[in-house]
Amino acid sequence: MTDTAADQTQGTPSPDLKIIETRVYRGPNVWSYDPAIQLVVDLGSLEHFPSNTIDGFTERLLEHLPRLDQHHCSRGRRGGFIERLQEGTWLGHIAEHVSLQLQQEAGHDMRRGKTRQVKGVPGRYNIVYAYADEAVGLAAGELAVRFVNHLVQPDPGFDFTTELERFIKQAERTAFGPSTQAIVDEAVSRDIPWIRLNKFSLVQLGQGVHAKRIRATMTSETGSIAVDVASDKDLTTRLLASAGLPVPRSGSVRDVEDAVQLANKIGYPVVCKPLDGNHGRGVCLNLKDADELREAFPIAAEQSRRGSVIVENFVTGKDYRCLIINGRMEAIAERVPAHVVGDGVHTVAELVDITNADPRRGVGHEKILTRITVNAAARELVRSQGFELDDVPPEDTMVKLTLTGNMSTGGISIDRTFEAHPENVEIAEEAARMIGLDIAGIDFICPDITQPVRETGGAICEVNAAPGFRMHTNPTIGDPQYIAKPVVDMLFPPGATSRIPIVAVTGTNGKTTTSRMISHVFKGMGRKVGMTSTDGIVIDERLVIRSDASGPKSARMVLQNPRVDFAVFEVARGGILREGLGYQRNDVAVVLNIQPDHLGMRGVDTLEQLADVKAVLVEAVPRNGFAVLNADDPLVRKMRRKCSGEVVWFSVSEPGSEVRDYIEGHCRRGGRAVVLDRSDLGDMIIMKHGRRSMQLAWTHLLPATFGGRAMMNVQNAMAAAAAAFAAGAPLHDIRQGLRTFNTSYYLSPGRLNEIDVDGRTVIVDYCHNAPAMRMLGDFVDKLGESLNASSELGRPSRIGVIATAGDRRDDDMRELGDVAAQHFDVVIVREDARLRGRKRGESAELISEGVRTAMENGARCRQVETVIDELTAIRHALSRSNPGDLVVLCVDQHQTVLAELESVSHLAQAGARSGDEGGDPDFVRSDEEASPSEE
What does the subunit section of this Swiss-Prot or TrEMBL entry state (predicted)? Predict the structure, then answer.
């Protein structure tokens, strides 16, 4: 602690630690490669009270959470965090470690975290820590803050022990069961991606067309007919008997007297159980006469969904569960019913409490063993053995509390996998095949599994669909069996693919067009492409969701679609800051440019900070992946240091330039690049790989470049070519894809669409910031020159309708107006429907200021007008234009605009104008002049 901090620790600390903001990252993000939770906290007065200045703080903390002494912290060794506490560390940092330890207390082994001060805001910190379950991670952070405040100043209404128990129970409710967790862990160990599809146990393994699903131990390969058969115990028995397999004599009945009649025919003792029950519920064993059967019948009937009850002869012996996966026996466990063993000191009830105190026992399936429940049936069973719950059984006397050996009723398991006789193994495997289950639990009752059941007596009493794994993965006695491996082997055989290729595109401008170009290339190769962009989600050329889909939720939707075998994601800055990427990694990351847009939002104030956000895609490239980077952009060029895979450069720099020389050296070392070679014949896109150079296409032959005039689309095409090449597309398919991609509304809606409206050349684009306007302005200049040369009506005018989002900085808006004024004769300023925090007309006025300032400095523009509504602005632009003019519309709702252009394309000029050139240059539409669409 510094002397200054020590001087400030005067007075009494108050419990001022509070959470200002919470954010959950579900994939690689600006803080971590792995999923993480970010808490923005304010320390208040505690900023002046490090841990060593609060009397007894460290001691009280360790008293409640002693395992904090295992935390390394920045020291890199056990006990490092304790050293930091004793030296003095801030309470935000302590809350981070408490959040991690609370998750460990709940069984989630989380160790990664960091705490950083918010730049320029004293007392405010970013706490970032890992999580396994989102709900548990958030609850851990909230409890950690309350607990730290309690340690600063005790709160009479806060009991940490009670709160910790409540937290652990919440974690147990949301956690996967042992079976699901075992399969997920095995998938993770094989680098198979997974997605939790609901709050329970429905999980997707793999992506897109390769995806498989599991729900506990049922898989997407499990047949519904097989499950129905296994659920019908009477049908199961008849099918197994027809195959010559040993089964009890049995039948199904719906009436108690029918059950007695059947039992008389079979012979006592008998078993009474529900036709379609599970987990041993409603099973009554060793019924010796009709009276016992009559008492047991309603118990079984209550647990039967169909109302039918099975009566079968009681087979004596030990209870074995044989686990069959994909036709092979993988594990066998002997199940011992819930019981206690007398010690000559404690009563039966006390022995149950002692047994339930085992930390391995929990409620239901939350832990590897289940607590024993003492109910009326248990009391009766204890009484039948000559004891009451208050009696003290003799030492080493076993007192059963259930008759069935199910783990869910408190039983224990003994591993017998390698002891079973081969004939018994063959019988169990044949039983699973007869029912048709890919994963089956075969319940054997026999004297000894090591001896042939046909000789010693015994039978298959049940076949279970979705059998639990915990008796095999966590046996009470014996070695655990790693049975998740054959399950994953069945779903993803060795060598099978679980991932689909992912190409992720980011940058300030050009993301959507580049994503569409890449998608078009691979669609031409026959791939089923899932693409996300600001326009929506497209699955195999069909727009399935129309909205801004450049965030992580949209990416996950594509990865869940079973038709998709190739994914192209447009990744926006906002989604990365909000949730991270939403997926684990991308095979190819494309970064187009870093330009001043979205600055001053969510803590991103500089281009360098914006570059760090965009670089998350590059950091998510694996060692065998690629990062396609714009060598002409210095900030993008620096991202090469963050790439674990191979860098592919693209550049329009002239040969002999510093950038081009660097690329040539990169290629001589075996690297890849896409460059532009200029000659008198035109500009040629060249693909380079090592010392090989391959001509891809003349830029003027690519429709999207408007004869090479649209330089932004030349760069987009080069980036798309580089990405497709890195993703494995052959050269001729890349060339064919770019030659057939155009900026028609069908292929590229709202991006440089050219439409003829009564002799006017109308360009519809999305341009909304100054850097994009410079590129668009360059295209407008070149296209305007071409129109001048072909015009017979004199010099055509250039009219531009422009706007930007209201959450941009004032100076950015003025700069947009300034740049537009350099390229248009008339600028019409409109506003988006969403004002994003601005007052109506405020954004338009700032843009207009920029235009007027440029006009005063000699810019091309001679008139600026303000028409707030988008459709009204477009009608106004068309009405004041003449045939041969160039009208550029920078739009927000391109669907509405294109429909409007079609409807007015044949209007006569007479009477269509909403004003003349002599009108007020600062005209603002009033509310009374609202368009029909607004009304």
Answer: Homodimer.
Residue 813 near residue 804 (C-beta atoms within 8 A): yes
Inter-CA distances, 444 with 267, 409, 441, Å: 20, 18, 10
Query: Is it the case that residue 927 has pLDDT exceeding 80?
Result: no
Residue pair 354/361 in contact by the 8 Å Cβ criterion: no
Q: Which of 281-285, 311-315, 717-721, 892-896 shows the lowest per-residue confidence on average (mean pLDDT)?
A: 281-285
Closest among 669, 616, 667 to 642, alpha carbons compared: 616
Closest Cα to residue 516, out of 568, 471, 450?
568
Q: Is the dihedral of CA 273, 278, 282, 284 positive or negative?
A: positive
- pLDDT of the residue at 791: 63
Answer for the pair 745, 898: CB distance below 8 angstroms, yes or no. yes
The token duo for 473 is 């993965």
CA 421/CA 424 separation, integer angstroms: 5
* Cα distance between residue 801 and residue 203, in whole Å: 49
User: Which 3 state secondary structure label does DSSP give 779?
Assistant: helix
Long-range CB pairs of 890-894 (<8 Å, 24+ gap) are: 890/765, 890/766, 890/767, 890/768, 890/776, 890/800, 890/801, 890/802, 890/803, 891/750, 891/764, 891/765, 891/766, 891/801, 892/803, 892/832, 892/833, 893/833, 894/749, 894/750, 894/753, 894/764, 894/766
- 606 near 570, Cβ under 8 Å? no
Residues 68/81, Cβ–Cβ less than 8 Å: yes
Return d(Cα 723, Cα 660) in angstroms, integer.
19
Q: Which residue has the higher pLDDT, 326 or 787?
A: 326
Segment 378-385 shows an average pLDDT of: 87
Q: Which residues contact 349 (CB under 8 A, 6 or more apart)?
A: 374, 389, 390
Q: How confident is the model at residue 924 (pLDDT cuts 50, 70, 90)?
A: very low
* DSSP-assigned states of every residue in 131-165: -SSHHHHHHHHHHHHHHHHHHHS--TT--HHHHHH
Helix (H, G, I), strand (E, B) or coil at 651: strand
Q: Do 151 and 61 form a contact (C-beta atoms < 8 A)? A: yes
Q: Is 910 helix (H, G, I), strand (E, B) or coil?
A: coil
Q: Which two tokens stand for residue 561?
A: 């679609």
Instruction: For Cα atoms 327, 329, 333, give the angle at the middle one, nearest 5 degrees.
Output: 145
Structure tokens given for 595: 């330009």
Largest Cα–Cα separation, the chain = 115
- Interval 778-796 mean pLDDT: 81
